[in-house]
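Structure tokens please, single chain.
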Amino acid sequence: MLGYENQEKKMIVRLVRVGFVALMLVVVLLYVLSINEKAGELQVGIIKNWLIPVFVSLALAGVFLAIDMLTPRKKISTISGVIFGLMAGLMVAWIFSTVIDLVVQSWDIDASEIVSAVKVLMGVSFGYLGITMVIQTQDEFRLVIPYVEFAKQMRGPLPLVLDTSALIDARIADIAASGLIQQTVVIPEFVIEELQLLADSRDRMKRNKGHRGLDIVTKLQRMNGVDVMIDSSPVSKKAVDLALIELSTRMPAMLVTLDVALSRIATIQKIPTLNINDLANALKPVVIPGKMIHVELIKPGEQHGQAVGYLPDGTMVVAEDGYPYIGQTRDLVITSSMQTAAGRLLFARVDMADMDTDEREHALQESQNQHHRRSDDHHGHHDRRPEIDVKPATISGPRVVEEDSDSSEYESGGSSNLKGTPRNPRR
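Here you go.
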């Protein structure tokens, strides 16, 4: 779809260029030809010096075509800045020329040619100065005139730039369908190219991810309440993550991703980042001890007598007395909760569901006290070190042996009654 739109734009631009050249030729032809009517007959001729307008028209056409083709990436902010700067410079030049005319008339100066040349030079100079000043300060120009803005800046909420992981995850489509997203959703062209590479991969898992990401792009484009823009702005970075950082900084925009590393890099670059997992955790219902839930127990837990189930949002529930009810859907009463690196973990009991209010509150209080004691014992077990009686080590040196005089005599000296070790008899 994106390639078809680009081809259509290129075809329209080519037709406009051809029409421009044809219109220039028609105008020159009408100017060069001399058509007269005499005695009821049309006489067609060519004016004198017809080569001059032809060469001028060809030169103008060549110059403007060269400017158009040598600047393929045009920015409306730059063009607006040039026009506004030229208008401001010419206005200032007109004011000064009026002052010069008043001075000439007051002093009765007879130098019309010099005055005219000065006016033209002042117009050119002020036009140049106005263009350069606006181009160099167009990003801050909105601070001077609040409703004049040349820089590409988004008003209101920052647009959302989606990366590959956010599109593959597919939850962004559900978030957009809920009406929560009011700002523009920007999908870079290089992200779509990466999804296309994944869709063409030989690996089945990568191919499924690529197709799912492309389907989510199409689904977002078909939503009525979502403004989706395919951005084809050129980026200098070749890596997708770095290109996303550059695009988000340039717009500026908020980056939507599930990649933790990319999120950290964006945070370092001071780019607003939205992690869909963080959003999902923030939208999980708040559960408090004493609340009753309806959960299917599907497998045993790590401790004796426990069973494990899951809420619809994926939160794990550990039923401390649920082992006999594995494979059944039971009413549980939450006793405590724990926040882990993998998410929220809930502890519950089955027997409290059949109690009345007073008994349930009493049992809940006892369960929480036991949970706190177990936590304290668990921490204390790690903090305390067992006391062990340490005995001093027995150091045994080399064993001293007594040798007979016959066996201890050596080659030199022949001394007897030597004491030493078996490894070094002379020491």
